[in-house]
Design brief:
Homodimer. With 284 residues, the protein is α+β, with helices and mostly antiparallel strands. The chain has four helices and 18 strands. Bound molecules: the ligand N[C@@H](CCC[C@H](N)C(=O)O)C(=O)O.
Length: 284
Amino acid sequence: MSAGKPLRFSKMHGAGNDFVVLDLRGGRPLPSPALARALGDRHTGVGFDQLLTIEDPVAAGCVARYRILNADGSAAGQCGNGARCVAAWLQRDGAAPGGHFRLDSPAGVIDVQALGQGRYSLAMGLPKFAPAALPLHAPAEAVAYELPAGGQRLRFGAVSMGNPHAVVEVPDAAAADVATLGPALQARPEFPEGVNVGFAQVLASDRIALRVFERGAGETLACGSGACAAVAVLVRQGRVGRHVFVALPGGTLEITWPADDAPIVMAGPTAFVFEGEFPLEQVE
Ligand SMILES: N[C@@H](CCC[C@H](N)C(=O)O)C(=O)O
């Protein structure tokens, strides 16, 4: 990034999970973690949960590649709400004509289907339950694990959606002590790369309420990969069916996992908020 020339960005959100989107196609350099943190500051910068960079694709057959930085400057392997926003951004840009296209993500190729009115459906890949996939230090794969966190023993399921998730079933998501238990489980040494912690309340076999304490961003209004992870874990525990509406504080996502050997499909909204320019002198 060169000083003197302001950085153009788009501000977007997907179900309240908010993003700054940068167009780095043509080989423009990635922002440093320091620049990401400066942009992400909600008082002195623009503010976001995740920074999304749109780049030239590496994988064949994709219209673009995206990468993800959390608000604290750390890199992430997947972002479901962000992937929908990248899809919407590319369609508006004209780079993804037609309703069906592919994105090159850090976790692999994602199939996108535009549903109209800013909604997109994405095939988010297979959930990976092997502890090494997160990674989680556990003696063996299990449908549920238990660890001490926040002064209690927390029972959770664990899965990778390209990024690591722990899912705790709670009787009342609104009353869950997300601010205490989220960081406590996230910081356990058994998760050497940290973990996104979801608190899921089963409302019916096709409906759950979910709050997610994200790695690198704290509690967000929605987490797309977290919604996929919650459904994957709860299906495996026999708690829900394979088509589930996930109500998050910022909106509802529709998650379908047709079969164990099929990718999880996530459908949900996107929104453009504003376009802007950030003066790089603030950072460099
Ligand atoms: N909000 C995202 C997930 C973003 C990455 C996550 N915080 C991590 O570090 O793995 C989503 O919608 O999936």
